[in-house]
Amino acid sequence: MDPRKRVLVQNERAKLSAAAIDRLSTACVAVGFITPLVSLSGSTIVPSWSLELVFSTVTWLVAAFILHLMARHVLRRLEP
Q: How far apart are CA 52 and CA 43, in angstroms?
């Protein structure tokens, strides 16, 4: 295979991998932050943040941040 084509294929694979990892980070934000926020806002009782809910939310947000950093790391493999 032509070396230039090989570089293009490797770059596309890296971009696809980074995009997949970043979608996972977006899902973590949805699960960890948006879902509890919506469930608390739909309650007729005064919403309260329990320690478990706060811990869970922070854990999901940290996981999202780590996944986002991993996606950025994958993009460093791009070649000119």
A: 18
Q: Return the residue matching tokens 């780590």.
A: 66
Report how many helices (DSSP H) and strands (DSSP E) the chain contains, helices first. 3, 0
Please state the domain extents for the chain.
Answer: 3-75
Round to whole Å and give the CA distance between 52 and 42. Answer: 19
Q: How far apart are CA 1 and CA 6, in angstroms?
A: 7
pTM of the model: 0.82
How many whole angstroms separate alpha carbon 71 and alpha carbon 18? 4
pLDDT in tens, 27-50: 999 999 888 888 777 766 666 778
